[in-house]
């Protein structure tokens, strides 16, 4: 019954908005086109400035995906530092680092936040990962992770050592244990 009521609410909201605005016809829902590389496709190369809990990387030495060929790389696009969901996600990544990723996996977080904000966020969680700054969301857009308002959608990619996408989750839910189980399995399979 609750699902039915939820569906009715979803269908009535556009109608209510249409009636409020006095328009002659209802607002037409639009589909969101998900782009970005799919499993088996080559991951687009990029270079972004980075920060850790201890330092901000030199301008002339950005993180480059191509420099990490030969390793499994996890790209975690996320909306914003210090938000509840992002904090939960990176606390889990940090706490489960060894069981989720292992010592040879490169894990990076990517958002539009500044390098100084990234450094404070990484320090607050004692996070061992690089956080990359993508202020104009060019990389996020190439990976289908850019959302409106300068924020990213929460997406996760696992890149194989050959540079191809092994796994992508275009709606990573940081409070769902199953999301971490799927990620762990994808990392293990990519390392084979």
User: What fold name goes in the CATH topology slot of the largest domain?
Assistant: Glutaredoxin
Largest sheet: 7 strands, mixed
Structural class assignment? alpha/beta
Query: What is the average per-residue confidence, as pLDDT, rounded to a whole number?
Result: 87
Give the domain tally: 2
Give the overall shape: globular
Uncertain residue segments: 1-24
CA radius of gyration is 19 Å
Oligomer: single chain
- Helical proportion? 25-40%
CATH architecture of the largest domain: 3-Layer(aba) Sandwich
What's this model, at a glance?
The chain is of the alpha/beta class.
Give the topology.
Elements: H1 2-21, E1 47-51, E2 63-64, E3 73-77, H2 84-95, H3 97-100, E4 106-111, H4 115-124, E5 130-133, H5 138-142, E6 155-159, E7 165-169, H6 177-191
Overview of this protein structure:
With 192 residues, the chain is α/β, with parallel strands linked by helices. Helices cover 34% and strands 17% of the residues. The longest helix has 20 residues, at 2-21. The radius of gyration is 19 Å and the shape is globular.
Which features would summarize this protein structure in a list?
6 helices; 192 residues; Glutaredoxin; 2 domains; single chain; alpha/beta; seven-stranded mixed beta sheet
């Amino acid at each position: 019954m609750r699902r039915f009521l939820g569906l009715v609410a979803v269908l009535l909201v556009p109608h209510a908005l249409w009636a409020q605005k006095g328009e002659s016809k209802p607002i037409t829902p639009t589909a969101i086109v998900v782009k970005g590389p799919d499993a088996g496709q080559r991951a687009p190369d990029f270079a972004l400035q980075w920060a850790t809990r201890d330092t901000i990387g030199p301008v002339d030495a950005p993180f480059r995906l191509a420099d990490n060929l030969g390793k499994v790389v996890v790209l975690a696009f996320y909306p914003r530092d210090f938000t509840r969901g992002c904090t939960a996600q990176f606390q889990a990544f940090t706490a489960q680092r060894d069981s989720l990723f292992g010592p040879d996996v490169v894990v990076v977080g990517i958002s539009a936040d500044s390098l100084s904000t990234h450094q404070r966020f990484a320090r607050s969680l004692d996070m061992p990962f690089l956080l990359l700054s993508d202020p104009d969301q060019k990389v996020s857009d190439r990976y289908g992770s850019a959302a409106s308002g300068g924020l990213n959608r929460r997406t996760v990619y696992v890149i194989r050592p050959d540079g191809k996408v092994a796994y992508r989750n275009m709606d990573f839910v940081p409070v769902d244990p199953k999301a971490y189980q799927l990620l762990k399995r994808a990392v293990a399979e990519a390392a084979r």
